[in-house]
Amino acid sequence: MVNWFWKKRRQPRRTLAVRSRGDVGDATRVDFAELAPELNRFLGQAAYLQLGYFETLTRGIRATPELARKEALSRAAGAALDKHRGIVRVITERGEDPTELMLPFRENLDAFRRKTIGARQEETLLAVYLTAGMLDDFYLALASSYGETGERVAEILREDGAGGEIVSIIQQTIESDEEWRSLLSMWGRRLVGDTLLVCRGALRPERLAQDEQRIEPVYTELMGAHARRMDAMGLAS
Questions:
Q1: How many other CB atoms are found less than 10 A from the CB of residue 108?
Q2: Which residues of the chain have pLDDT under 70?
Q3: Global pTM value
Q4: Closest Cα partner for 2 from 217, 193, 229, 174?
Q5: 150: left (phi over 0), alpha (psi -120 to 50) or beta
Q6: Domains and CATH numbers, the chain
Q7: Residue in 116, 133, 120 with CA at minimum distance from that of residue 193
Q8: In this predicted model, what pLDDT tens digit does every residue of 186-232 receive, in sequence order?
């Protein structure tokens, strides 16, 4: 799950390491100090990602005729917007302009979102749930490189949200017609490559070529958490 997408409940405090949501055991730890981007780049990209999820979910609300689903998506969209506003608040308190920090990532992240918008709304919702989960985990790991500011962003990313609403929609869809299971399983697997490219693009390119092996354990953790999210919904990963 995506932390801003889980049902609201108290969870153990998470350490700054890549792991699946709710997993309180040991996780692979990676020193990102030399790979992590400069702080403003980290903040701008993290803020724009959450804004993008809000936009995608808001469009879903407009396209949904069912009132119950509209309400569920509104809660998920609100959680994404809260995270965006939280990161923007961190940026402004540092005396920076949030728009200027986010603007360099608009083109690439909008292209990423277009790739993860499915032909059917259920595919798009699954994409939001799964990609936000992977990217929230990744940014939690990166946050450990930025001291107090990173900890503030980590706290924002750990906030509970309404992901359970999206999971319920996906599960109800599968129960209504078993053919959805194979379709959504295939779609979920297709999301991994593009999401990992976003992660890779967030790192310092000049150091990445030298430290390729350092990032591999993180990719392994992200894909493992992705598989667990898929399995929890009854989808083959």
A1: 14
A2: 1-33, 160-162, 206-212, 237
A3: 0.83
A4: 229
A5: alpha
A6: 34-232 (1.20.1260.10)
A7: 116
A8: 999 999 999 999 998 888 876 666 666 777 788 888 999 999 999 99
